[in-house]
Every structure is written in C-alpha cells, then in structure tokens.
Design goal:
The complex is a heterotrimer of chains A (446), B (382) and C (293). Chain A has 446 residues and is α/β, with parallel strands linked by helices. Helix content of chain A is 38%, strand content 15%. Chain A folds into two domains: 250 residues, Rossmann fold (3-Layer(aba) Sandwich); 136 residues, Response regulator (Rossmann fold, 3-Layer(aba) Sandwich). Chain A is globular. In chain B, helix 2 crosses helix 18, helix 3 runs antiparallel to helix 11 and helix 4 packs parallel to helix 11. Chain B has a domain of 263 residues. The longest helix of chain B has 27 residues. The chains are: A alpha/beta (446), B mainly alpha (382), C mainly alpha (293).
Chain lengths: 446, 382, 293
C-alpha cells in the first residue's frame, strides 16, 4: 500500500460517507457523535458491524513492567466505560494488549500476532522507543494505523516515511526546550548538571535544553536503565559543582537520585522532566524512608517539573474526577495512578479519532481523520496536538510547575512550541473540562 | 568439561559404538548406527543432499499451506534454530559451554543492519556472508581465550561477553544507534519470487513471506553444512577432543586449535542467525541481544537433545511456540494479559525443569533412546 | 578528590554486595559442583516475604530471620526435589534446571507480590558520614553490609576448614563414592550445602535490597551476572576469593561508571575477567592445580 493509494482511498471514502448529522440511531445513548443514517458495515480489517478491535504492546513482565504495566489497565477501564455507554457508533471496542517484556524481538513477534492473527483495526499506544521502533516499518508496510505511540521519541513524526505512525505525548526535545528556557530565564547564574537516561529520552531532552543552557551546563551524567547504583553519577554532579540538576529519567530513578543525593549530602535544585516526576509514585516510594532513617518527610518538596495532562495529585481536576469515576466503575484491582490516568487520556484521544473517522471507517480514514481533525480536538491535554498532513507529532506543549506537599503549583502558563528552533509561546486557549457524559463527541471529518 | 559426557562414553567406548548411552553421544552418532536400516543412500553427502531437498519441499508446503501469521513465526524459529545448531556443535560435540552466543548474534545482526542501510545495498547474499565472516572473526578471538578455560570459568567469561558486548552499541551510538537501535530496511522482493509464489499458491506474496523464505533457506543451508561437518573427520576429531583429551593429543591432535575451530564454526552460525534476526525483527537493538537470548539458545539445545541438529530445531520450535501457547491458554482462562504472561512464565519454567528430570537426554535424545532400547529388546528376543 | 573517594567507597559497597552473592554461589559450587542460576530468584522471593512482614509492621530483624529461615527451607526443598535427580548427570542438565527454576520463581514473585517497585528501608541510616563539609558515600548501613559479608566469609572459611561437617561437605562434592565409603552421608551433605547456600543467598538478597533501595521481582538480575563474574574472578572454590573478587569488581565498575560511562560497565567486567582468567585460568584464589589445557 503506497502513500498515494492511501490518499486516494481517503478521498473516495470522503465522497461516500454521508455527512448528515442525524442523531445516533440505535446502539444506545450518548455514544459516538455524528453517525450517519447508514447501517454499520465491516468496513475494513478489524472492524465489524458491532465491534472494533484495537491492539497494543506493553512490558507486562520483566524490568520495565513496574508502572508501565498499569497503563493498559487504565485504557481498559476507559474503553469499558465507553462500551457500557454504547460504544463508538454502536460498536464495542475490543482492546487486546500483549506482553513484550520490553524486548524488541518480542515486540515484533506480538505485533505480528496482533496484525496477522488477531487482525486488529489499529495499534494504539505501543510502548517504548526500541520496542516500537522494531514494528513501525511493518505496520506502515501493512497499512495499519499506528496511533499514539507511548514514547516521546521524535521517531514517530515522519509522515513521509511512516504515514501511519503518530506520536502522542510531547516529544522529549520540546520538553527540553521549555525546561531549558525556563531555567535560563529564572536561574541565569545556575551551574546546571544533567542527569540523563542513556537513550533517546535523555539525549533528545538534553539537546532541547542545550538550546538555551549550552553555557550553563557543567556536567552531564548518564545512567543505563537497570543499573541500580547511581552513586558514581551523583558524585560526579556534586564534584562538578552543579547547583541545579535537570533529570531526564524515569520515576524510580527520581527516587533513587533523591536518596543518593541525601546520602551524599548533596542539595541542588532538582528539575525532573514530566516522565520522572510523578509525585504520587515517587512520594509513595520515598514515604517509607521518612518513617525510618531518612528524616525529611517531603523530599520532593520544591522540586520543579513539567505537566501536560492532569495528574492524580490534583484530585479536584474535573478530568481526574472523571478518571476516578471510570476507574472505580471498572472494578479492577489497585488505585488510580498517573500511569492509569495516562492510559485513560490516551484512550480518550482514541475515541476522538474513531469518531472523527466516521461511521464506517477504513484504516486510511482513521489516519486521515487524525491528520485533519486532530489539531482541533479538545481533551485532557493542556496544549493542542500538532497533527496535520505534514506533522505527526503529539502535544505541542506543557507548563512548568513546582511540587508543593502533595500537590503542585503552576509556575508558567501553558507553553507551546515545536521542534528545532521554533519559538516558545504562551498558549492562549482555555483549560478544558470533560463533557458531561465523560465521552467525547467529535464530528466525522467527512 | 568432561562432565558433559555420559558415563557410558566416559568409560572409554568410542561414541559411535555406544548408541545406547544418553545425550550427546547418542544424538550425534545414531545416524550412522541406524544407517544400515534406512532406505537413504549410504554416502553421507548424497544422503544429506536428499534430506535437504526433502526438507526444502516440506518447508515450501508448510509455508504455503499456513497463514501469514504462522509464516511470520517461522522466521523466529529459523534464527533460533540456526544459532542453536551452531551452539550444539560447540557444546554437544566439542564440549565447550557458551553463555555468550547472543552477543555473537549481535555482531551478525548489526553488520546486516549497517550494510542494508547503505545507499545502494549489496546483494543480500553478500551481506549475509559478510555478517558470517565478521562474526567468525570475533568468534576466533573469543575462541582463543575460551580454549584455555573450562567449565564454570568458561561459562563466566562467556556470560560477561553476553552482557558486555551489547554495551558497545550504547557507547558508539552515532554508528550503532544506541538504545533505540538500528532499523533494518527490508530487502527488496525480487520479481521471480513474486512470480514463483503466484504460480505456486495463487496468492500475492508479502514482505513477511519473503523474509520467511529467506529464513528457512538460511536454516536449511546451515543445517546441511553443519550435518556434513559433524559426520566428517572434523566432527570425529571434535568428539575425540571432548571425550578423550589425552588419547587425542597422543594421536597428534592439537586440542587448542580444534577448540578454536569449533568456536569459529559456531560463531559463523550465530552470525548468520543474527543476520536473519535483523531481517525478521527489522531492528537490531541492545535490548534484543540480552543475556536472555544467550540462555534461551542453551535451553533450546539441551531441551531438544544435546549434540543433535534435529534436537536444536525441536528446542527452538518449543522456545518460540511454548510461551505463546501458554499465554494464550491463560487468556482463554479469563486471566488478563499481565496475569497470563506471568503465569505462563511460571509454567514455562516448571516445564523446563520437568523435561530435564524425566527426559535427561532432551526430547529428541530420549525418544531416540527409547526407540533404540525397544529395538534392542526385540532383537534380543528374536 | 572527593569524587575519587566517593567512587572508591561506593565501589567497596557495591563490591560487598557482589561478594555476598558470590559467596552463595561458591557455597553451592563447593558442595554440589553446580552453578545455581536460580540463586538470585530464590533470594528475591525470601526478600519479598521479609518485606511483606516489614511492611505489615514487623521489625527489620524479624524480617531478616524469616528470610533466612525461608531460604533454608527453599534451598533444602529445591535440592531434594529437583536437583537431586540431575546431580551426577550431564552438567548442563543441572544448569537448565536452575534456569527453569529461575524463570518460574521470578514469575511467581510477580504473581504473588506484583511487579511494581517497593521501597526497602535499610536497618541503619543510609546518610553518609560527614568529614568537614563533605559527606562520604559511607553510612552506618554500609558498615553493616560490609560487616555482614565479612562475617559470612569468615564463617564459611571456618566451616570448611575446621569442622567435620565442612570436611564432609567438601568430600561429598569432590568424591561421592569415597566419601560414602568413609561413612559420610552424602545425600544429607548435599542438601545441607544447598540449604546453607540459600541462607547466605537470602542474606545477600536482604543486604542488596537495602543497598538498591527499591526492589522489583527482577532486582537481582544484574547481580546474577556480576555476582557470578565476581565468584569466577576469585576462583569458585574460595570464600575469600569470592569476597576479593567482588570487591575488585565493585571498585572497577564504580570507576568505570564515574570516569568513563555506564554503558561500558559490562564490557569492563568482561575485559578484567578475561585478562585474569588468561593469566590464572582457575581464578585469583584457585586452590587446585589448573587442569592441563
């Protein structure tokens, strides 16, 4: 399937799908927006009159399972909620996710299975850079929509080579830029140290930050995930005299770096990227230490971070309230965590995409819908998506905040930008609230 | 590593005379012992050629009668089996353990990825040969060190190899892609292949099918070459080096040299396996070549039956399909995906233990042993 | 300078942790000539049992005792149930059995305790001692870890060298037939060897958990490799060798991390191991004559 044929198909689809906006007939109330007068049809692989099948790969076992294995349960909860309220255009969503143990060979194997045997309509939220990198070529050559990869790598924004692949979260580079500019403006004299995960996450983040901080950086330390001893790295940052440390790391390394710094008597200003901050998780990990040998109860107090979707430490946020309701109704084990909230936010976006794709979408319609309507979707994200025919990158921005006690206070308005040397600007849109039903209501694009 | 061999062969019997002994010895040599009773030609090369042709026909039938999903799985079996075939020569025939063959596969995989990425990539055959050559070279270096080591010391050194070598890909991230790895562009499907498949089964072939055929072809060629090698003077020398160090040395065999040769041969197989892996997975990344891969290869050859190519193949099939079958079984029992994955590993681990307890010669070895026993009983009676 | 001191101290601590694990491997090697790949998983499950107790309000010491007892039971049961049948058989079969156990036990931990990180609070303060304005990477808890490891080393050396049981265990491992003729109850000795090794392994698991601070079902994975390398480095036969091997490896890896890069830690381990083994194929502290190659 070539790109030109995809365009052609979506054009034909546009001509055939009726654009009337009659109320959704049958299928139960509240469900998808729009919906034509037509009957539901099995319009493509993975879609029947009353079901639509979505697949994904996550690390459910092994070293990367902690935390990440919770994301699909959040997605499950939200899709269950949508299904209980009539599904999308009367179709029930079947959510199939499989374990890849964060090993690319497994990923390619399970994605083969999802596409060739389970015959999913689309892949959503495949997690991890090396893992998902193994399957984008395959998905694109098979013409399977590869939506909302759960990774901030810039690899997913390549409409020329990978027309079916879309990012979702803000990529690490724009996060690095926003953080870099904030630090340069507010801490112009700081000696900055970088604490980086040894992959594209750390690299891209550092590259973004360096656009503004090149002269201020005094040390750059990298850890390889899996090594649990970061004393050498933290010692090196301390030795270099860094008094502000930017961490592009995952939450467990936030906790680890905090404890190690405490052990070494090292007290810089910490600034963790969004991925690593997760105050609820890190706090619960560190909480046990406050009872024991570590005396400081709120180790994370005063730490700077960024946010782009609502998090569970703001229980009054209307989105989090919706998620809490959805999670409680789903009856799954465990608490609502930020990983699950992440999954729900992404699932919400997925419903928007399916609604925009029309009543009887093909795989290409889905891709076209994201390209055409994605930038206008209002959802849990603070900033809009960057989707267009030429751009497959996710959220365009975030805000800088400070962790205070159990919650956080915003330090900047929502800042939006793009890759490369694009300016950083304040976003002038309003904060969104979820619709009454808790389910989006997008018009079909055609 | 003299412990590797069986009590029977340790007692001094030449291995080909002792087909009733368990494991390596019986697996490696029973073909000859039973050769007289089959309808296959007596000449080794001819016999192997015939088997090769039969297997090739069987493989085409298998690939064309199954769906694309199954075709895709075959690629995974193929790269495991190629590497396991090489390892079973090293461990089964020559008696050297290696926990580091995953790292050697990485050498082959990265070579393939880099060469396919070129502006005008060379023909696939050339690329594969280059991957094999380079890995053999690395294997020679490792082999020279390994020839001096025994038992757990060799295990430890090769284990460190498995953990250490992929780190290079992280360190030289400009060329080797770092953590996210190098994507492997699928080689172009030649016209004749499309035509052939169309006439064969009427369907139009996809990239998945092309790669499945490449993988199977590599597997068959490797096993053909290895089988001939095992039946040749070289194979007999390796067995002598394994079983009778002193006698072999007295006969003028240089132990060190032959150990290095065995390592090079198995490294060559690992290199090809890595090249196939690169095509099948479409990516080479450090996380794909972890210690788990090396240990899986060892598991495949022991579970299948040490020293036997067929055993290595059976073990590889098991490695690819068993975890999946268990996971699917778990899901059909209404577990969620995470539970099913976890439980499947519990069962998988238990199965490994149980097979070793009840079939110590591996699956193929134990079945062969049972057949030989019943035949011996019959002939004793008659 | 401060960085060098801290890297050295950090290396010693990490090294002690490797040594603790290597000691358990040495113990099993000395008693049954098997390298136990399940060691890490067995230690991890006892640590999780202890952690559950600690989280429910028991003291660390209660948890430690329970972990050691659990290790004793698991070690003995594993030996009697699955190791005994493969003992004396092909060496690789035992390796695969321990690999199978490793996979099964690690997955069982996920089933029983979940996959998420849990905080493991050390029994003593982990805040570094202060020298002038500087904090050292040396805390009361690291002293406890070091002390415990040295104690085990001395204990094991004494056991093997000075007691009848130790002698009987060594005899059972090296020559079962002869040992049996001399009246040693070989089976019992093998079970005892595994049980003791599992106790040491459990202790290592508890010490390591306190050092890595956050435990998951896979937290011992890196230790399997580096603990094994440390044991081989020292010569698998010698408890002193295991500790020296562990400390050397810990120091080396700490310097590599601090001055070169985390990525090359594995490669550094490989290089030092190969160099040492090429000079002394039986490890640094090998007691037996090297075999003819």
């Amino acid at each position: 399937m070539t790109r030109s044929s995809r365009r052609l198909v979506s054009f034909v689809a546009a001509a055939t799908v009726a654009s009337t906006l009659a109320a959704c007939g049958g299928g139960g109330g509240g469900g998808g927006g729009g919906g034509g007068d037509e009957e539901n049809e099995a319009s493509d692989v993975g879609i029947t009159e009353d079901t639509i099948r979505i697949g994904a790969h996550y690390p459910l076992t092994g070293v990367a399972a902690p935390g990440y294995s919770e994301i699909p349960t959040g997605v499950q909860a939200y899709f269950d909620y949508v299904n209980a309220n009539g599904g999308v255009n009367g179709r029930e969503i079947e959510w199939i996710y499989r374990d890849d143990a964060y090993n690319p060979t497994n990923t390619s194997q399970v994605v083969n299975q999802l596409v060739l045997e389970d015959e999913v309509f689309a892949i959503m939220g495949g997690l991890g850079t090396p893992t998902h990198n193994a399957v984008t070529d395959f998905l694109n050559s098979e013409g399977v929509p590869d939506l909302f990869v759960s990774s901030g790598s810039r690899l997913w924004d390549d409409p020329e080579e990978k027309p079916y692949t879309f990012g979702w979260q803000p990529d690490y580079e724009i996060e690095g830029k926003i953080i870099g500019q904030y630090v340069a403006e507010n801490f112009p004299d700081a000696k900055v140290g970088l604490f980086l995960q040894g992959d594209d996450f750390g690299e891209d983040g550092a590259a973004g930050a360096k656009q503004f901080l090149e002269d201020q950086i005094v040390a750059e330390e990298t850890y390889v995930p899996g090594n649990t001893d970061v004393r050498p790295q933290i010692s090196a940052l301390q030795a270099a005299g860094a008094d502000l440390v930017l961490g592009f790391n995952v939450p467990s390394y936030t906790a680890l770096s905090q404890l190690t710094a405490l052990q070494l008597g090292y007290q810089p200003q910490w600034f963790y990227s969004n991925v690593g901050s997760d105050p609820a998780l890190v706090g619960s990990l560190l909480a046990r230490f406050s009872e024991g040998a570590v005396s400081d109860a709120s180790l994370l107090d005063g730490v700077l971070t960024t946010e782009y979707i609502p998090t569970v430490d703001t229980p009054d946020d209307p989105w989090i309230q919706l998620y809490q309701r959805v999670w409680d109704e789903s009856g799954q084990e465990g608490e609502l965590t930020n990983y699950r909230a992440y999954g729900m936010s992404m699932a919400y976006t997925m419903i928007q995409a399916l609604q925009s794709a029309g009543q009887n979408p093909t795989r290409d319609d889905l891709v076209a819908a994201v390209e055409q309507a994605g930038a206008d979707w209002e959802g849990p994200g603070f900033a809009p998506f960057r989707y267009s025919e030429d751009k497959h990158a996710g959220y365009s921005g975030m805000l800088v905040s400070r962790i205070v006690g159990q919650g956080s206070e915003d330090l900047t308005p929502v800042l939006v930008t793009d890759n490369g040397d694009a300016e950083i600007e304040e976003y002038d849109g309003e904060a969104t609230t979820p619709p009454e039903s808790g389910i989006p209501d997008e018009e079909p694009v055609n | 590593m003299s412990d590797l061999q069986t009590p029977a062969s340790a007692a001094g019997a030449a291995t080909s005379d002792a087909p009733v002994s368990a494991t390596a010895a019986s697996n490696a040599s029973s073909a000859q012992a039973t050769g007289g009773r089959t309808f296959l030609p007596r000449n080794t090369l001819l016999r192997h050629l015939l088997v090769l042709v039969l297997c090739a026909v069987g493989a085409v039938v298998l690939l064309e009668s199954t769906d694309l999903g199954f075709n895709a799985q075959i690629g995974y079996v193929a790269y495991y089996a190629i590497a396991a075939g090489g390892l079973t020569v090293l461990t089964g025939l020559n008696g050297q353990i290696s926990l580091g063959h995953g790292a050697l596969m990485a050498v082959g995989g990265y070579t393939t990825a880099l060469m396919l990425d070129a502006e005008e990539p060379l023909p696939l055959v050339v690329i594969f040969l280059a991957a094999v050559a380079l890995t053999s070279l690395v294997g020679a270096v490792v082999g020279v060190a390994a020839a001096r080591l025994h038992g757990p010391y060799l295990a430890g050194a090769t284990l460190a190899l498995a953990v250490g070598l992929p780190g290079l890909a992280l360190y030289f991230k400009e060329t080797l892609g770092g953590e996210q790895g190098l994507t492997v562009s699928s080689p172009d499907r030649p016209e004749w292949f499309t035509e052939a498949i169309r006439t064969l089964s009427g369907g139009s072939p996809s990239g998945v099918k092309w790669i499945a055929y490449i993988s199977v072809a590599c597997l068959l060629i490797t096993y053909f070459l290895l089988a001939n090698l095992m039946r040749s003077r070289v194979g007999r020398t390796w067995r002598a080096v394994r079983d009778q160090e002193v006698a072999a040395e007295l006969a003028g065999i240089s132990l060190g040299t032959w150990r290095v040769v065995a390592f090079v041969v198995s490294a060559a197989a690992a290199g090809l396996a890595g090249a196939v892996l690169a095509l099948v997975v479409r990516l080479t990344a450090p996380t794909a070549f972890t210690i788990v891969l090396s240990l899986s290869l060892l598991t495949a050859i022991v579970i299948g039956g040490l020293g036997s190519l067929f055993g290595a193949l059976v073990g590889s099939v098991l490695l690819v399909f068993l975890p999946r079958l268990l996971r699917d079984a778990g899901e059909s029992l209404d577990m969620d995906a995470a539970q099913a994955a976890e439980i499947s590993y519990v069962v998988y681990g238990v199965i490994l233990v149980v097979v070793m307890l009840f079939a110590p010669a591996g699956l193929v070895g134990s079945i062969r042993l049972a057949l030989l026993r019943s035949r011996a009983r019959r002939s004793a009676r008659g | 300078m401060q960085q060098f001191v801290n890297l050295t101290l950090g290396g010693v601590i990490t090294g002690a942790v490797y040594a603790a694990f290597a000691l358990a491997l040495v113990l099993i090697w000395r008693s049954t000539r098997i390298v136990n790949f399940a060691q890490g998983a067995m230690a991890a499950i006892t640590t999780f049992i202890a952690l559950s107790l600690i989280e429910s309000g028991q003291s660390y010491w209660v948890g430690l005792v329970v972990a050691l007892l659990a290790g004793l039971v698991i070690g003995a049961v594993v030996e009697r149930l699955v190791i005994r049948p493969v003992e004396g058989g092909p060496e690789l079969n035992a390796v695969i059995v321990t690999l199978g156990l490793f996979i099964a036990i690690q997955a069982l931990i996920s089933v029983l305790f979940g996959v998420n990180q849990r905080a493991f609070v050390a029994p003593f303060s982990t805040i570094g001692f202060r020298v002038g304005d500087n904090s050292l990477a040396l805390s009361p808890n690291t002293l406890f870890t070091l002390g415990a490891v040295l104690l085990v080393m001395v204990g094991l050396t004494a056991l093997f060298r000075f007691t009848r049981v130790g002698l009987a265990m060594r005899a059972s491992a090296f020559g079962q037939e002869v040992a049996r003729l001399l009246g040693v109850r070989v089976g019992r000795m093998l079970t005892l060897g595994w049980a003791l090794a599992a106790v040491v392994g459990s202790l290592a698991g508890m010490l390591i958990a306190a050092e890595v601070t956050f435990v998951t079902p896979t937290y011992m994975d890196a230790l399997i490799v580096f603990g094994f390398v440390a044991a081989v480095l020292g010569g698998l036969d010698s408890p002193v060798g295991a500790v020296v091997g562990g400390l050397l490896l810990g120091l080396l890896l700490s310097y590599v991390r601090g001055y070169v890069g985390d990525e090359l830690v594995g490669l550094a381990a490989l290089v030092v191991l190969v160099v040492v083994l090429l000079v002394r194929p039986g490890g640094l502290f090998s007691t037996t004559q090297t075999r003819r190659a």
